[in-house]
Design brief:
It is built from 19 helices and 12 strands. The chain is an alpha/beta fold and about 575 residues long. The strands form 3 sheets. Strands 6-5-7-1-8-9-4-10 form an 8-stranded mixed sheet, sandwiched between helices. It has a two-stranded antiparallel sheet with strand order 2-3. It has a two-stranded antiparallel ribbon with strand order 11-12. A hairpin with a 5-residue loop joins strand 11 and strand 12. The radius of gyration is 26 Å and the shape is globular.
Length: about 575
């Protein structure tokens, strides 16, 4: 392989590579379809300057080719992750290799044919490098000149990157770290990759004394407020709690009829039962941890980390939890999951959240569409043998994307017309889950467990949002609603038509199960109380509800995101 000699005009090659990376960045930027963030093109230039720097140090062309390949795949990982999850892949997720198991179909579905355009600038650069002759050009022929050039470039990059922080002394929409914490994708489009790295690294730093003090004061005030609002409610004695956390279940398919076909006929019947309490307007609040964040929210009453998955970064923490509260009343707690125990680090979090046992790998070796069938059969068989009362968490999988083919072939939905087949296949997947849930409930009745159990059905996060079903491009918060259904509920709520957040499920379940005096009642509202916020924010900052809600309440709900991040990072409950 031919060496780049020291008299090679590397500066010229460097400039060409800067242009190449800038074109790639523009493709990456335009792949993130979020409205209202059209500026920031100049800031991406500094990313290009930085990413091209290695060419000034490489003596072998093969190393440059390898570097180009790695960078392009890094760009693709951002695009593919965004296609699936609607956010930027956190740096910590690149270490969670086990999560890739079984996701081949999902990754394939994230790939768009247009993604090949990302490689075009780099391919042109490789061709340029193969034909470029530099023997007669000696712009960087001295080591001192090379060193000065590199130092000058580094200074230019550092100045351009630090400028947004130097001129913004207060947290505002102009500050990169603040914007990343409120709308990550928008901030990424505006400030680029270097600022995203800075934000990620800053988020992983130890908690400052000011933040620690702020969180402690917040928690003291929250505790006093809860004490003032506490009231006597009927205590549930000996009722089992069965929580079904349904993959990608949203509210809009429930009650939906396409033509004459009900999408969720069985859940529709459950919703209208006399002893059912149904909240349709629940804002999902998961972030980088996706399904694992849903378990964090429901089981601990905490909101997710600002960046990164708590299941990976905080699995060794001490957590207050629903399982721990119920254990004080003599409950045994178990969790059933279709994935393997290492997926989202669930073996560790199951212990951290106070469960006595984890039953993993329910999917087995069969196709994913059969995962829930095995999950419900195995869990029912296990619950028959368990000492009561118990808390059982069942995490489904069959309705996980991609929705490339129908999971049921004998449904009338096959014949209906939709905006696209993906929406049709999503609704068919939900229809299959609807069937499995009813089979499970029939099994509970058959085995004599139903009457003595409170059954909760909820979704883990949004996936196929309502605007997609309608063929509408702009996303609203209400397009993301997930359901929260309680069957055999001994309590009623006057707030079923109001907006709640996913973080409100934990304190509500504590109240429902007679654990209102537990030491930590979560950062959310109890939906069985007299008043709730009727306001919640999506992970991107989109707001839902809020009609007639004071700015003080809105600010408190927003502050809970910041406080929860601090509590998780400082392992607050280990010492409090």
């Amino acid at each position: 392989m031919k060496l780049f000699s020291y008299n090679t005009n590397r500066l010229f090659v460097y400039i060409v590579l800067v242009i190449v990376f800038y074109l790639s960045f523009m493709f990456l930027r335009f792949s993130l379809q979020i409205h209202g963030y059209n500026g920031g093109y100049f800031r991406w230039l500094f990313d290009s300057l930085l990413f091209a720097l290695p060419v000034l140090f490489c003596k072998r062309r093969c190393l440059i080719y390898l570097y180009l390949l790695l960078v392009n795949f890094y760009f693709l990982s951002i695009i593919w992750y965004y296609h699936t999850y609607g956010t930027i892949m956190p740096l910590s997720s690149y270490l969670m290799f086990y999560n890739l198991k079984g996701l081949g179909a999902s990754i394939f579905h994230s790939i768009h044919i247009s993604d090949i355009l990302l490689f075009l600038p780099s391919i042109c650069f490789v061709i340029f490098l193969l034909i470029y002759k530099s023997e007669n050009r000696q712009i960087l022929n001295s080591s001192s000149l090379r060193r000065n050039t590199i130092m000058t470039l580094i200074l230019i990059i550092a100045t351009g990157v630090t400028a947004p922080y130097l001129f913004n002394k207060r947290l505002s929409g102009k500050d990169p770290l603040y914007l990343f914490s409120t709308t990550e994708v928008g901030a990424f489009k505006k400030y680029g990759i270097i600022h995203f790295w800075i934000y990620q690294i800053a988020s992983f730093q130890s908690v400052s004394s000011d933040d620690e003090r702020y969180a402690c004061i917040f928690m003291e005030q929250l505790s006093k407020k809860e004490s003032c609002l506490a009231k006597s409610l009927p205590t549930i004695m000996g009722k089992n709690l069965i929580l079904i956390l349904v993959e990608s279940l949203q509210s809009w398919p429930i009650g939906l009829k396409v033509g004459e076909v009900e999408c969720t006929p069985n859940i529709n019947k459950l919703v209208i039962q006399e002893d059912a309490v149904f909240f349709r307007k629940v804002i999902p609040q998961v972030k980088d941890g996706r399904s694992s964040d849903a378990q964090l929210l429901i089981n601990t009453g905490l909101l997710p980390l600002t960046t990164g998955a708590a299941s990976s970064l905080c699995a060794a923490n001490t957590f207050p939890s629903l399982a721990a509260a119920l254990k004080m009343q003599g409950y045994t707690s178990v969790s059933f999951i279709c994935d393997e125990k290492n997926y989202w680090n669930q073996e560790a979090t199951t212990i951290a959240y106070g469960f006595d046992r984890l039953y993993a790998g329910m999917e087995g070796d069969r196709e994913r569409k059969y995962a829930d069938e095995n999950l419900f059969k195995t869990s029912l068989s296990t619950m028959q043998k368990m000492k009561t009362p118990f808390y059982a968490q069942l995490v489904t999988l069959s309705s996980h994307e991609p929705y490339m083919e129908p999971s049921l072939l004998d449904t009338p939905l096959i014949q209906e017309k939709f905006v696209n087949d993906e929406i049709k296949n999503y609704l068919i997947a939900i229809q299959l889950v609807d069937i499995r849930i009813m089979e499970f409930i029939d099994g509970l009745k058959r085995e004599g467990l139903y009457d003595n159990s409170i059954i909760v059905i909820t979704g883990d996060h949004e996936q196929m949002t309502f605007n997609t079903y309608e063929g509408r491009e702009k996303l609203r918060a209400e397009d993301c609603y997930i359901p929260f259904l309680i069957i055999n509920s001994p309590l009623d709520s006057k707030h079923t038509d109001e907006v709640i957040g996913q973080v409100d499920i934990y304190p509500s379940l504590l109240t429902l199960m007679g654990c209102s005096d537990y030491s930590f009642r979560g950062l959310g509202d109890n939906v069985f109380g007299d008043n709730i916020s009727n306001y919640a924010t999506f992970r991107t900052g989109l707001e839902a509800g809020g009609t007639g809600v004071s700015e003080t309440i809105k600010q408190h709900r927003k502050d809970c995101w910041k406080v929860s991040d601090i509590l998780l990072r400082m392992d607050y409950f280990a010492s409090h």
